[in-house]
Each structure stands twice: as C-alpha cells, then as structure tokens.
Amino acid sequence: MNYPKIAFCALLIELCLIIPLTIFGIHYWGIYGAATVWALLQGLYFFVVPHVMHRYLLPNEKRQWFLRDTIPYLVLGLS
Q: CB burial class (10 A; 0-12, 13-18, 19+) of residue 69?
C-alpha cells in the first residue's frame, strides 16, 4: 500500500468534515463551537490515523508507541 496515500485520505476526510462542522458550530455556539469542533476533530485524527498507519507500517510497534510515547505526554499535557 502507498503510505502517503493513507495520510492524504485521512486529511481529505478531515477537510470534508471540518468545514461543515465548523460552520455548524459557529452558527449555534460562536467561536467556542468552532474551537470545540477543531479540538474534537484533531483528537479523532490523533487517535485514529496512527492505528490505521500502524496496521501497515511497523505493526508490532503500535502498543509501544501508544503506551510509551503517547500516554505519558498526554497525561502531562492534561495535568
């Protein structure tokens, strides 16, 4: 599989979602709605795309990436 194609498709899907959802969020909740939409889509991208990428690229490293390289920094960032 062409690995850049995975990232391109993920970004294309995100682009198709972020525009209408941002308009919806701004219409009902103003700037806070837009910020919420952006944060939710970035979080979704952060947790979904690496799992798809690790299916094809370094499949045995997904657990280590998530537990060692992601969770500690996520906890520090949220504290």
A: exposed
Q: What is d(CA 60, CA 54) in angstroms, rounded to the nearest whole number? A: 8
Q: What is the DSSP letter of 57?
A: S
DSSP assignment of 20-56, as one string? HHHHHHHHHHTHHHHHHHHHHHHHHHHHHHHHHHHHH
pTM: 0.75
pLDDT digits (tens, 9 = 90+) for 21-51: 999 999 999 999 999 999 999 999 888 888 8
The end-to-end CA distance of the chain, in Å, is 39
Closest of 40, 65, 41, 38 to residue 51, by C-alpha: 65
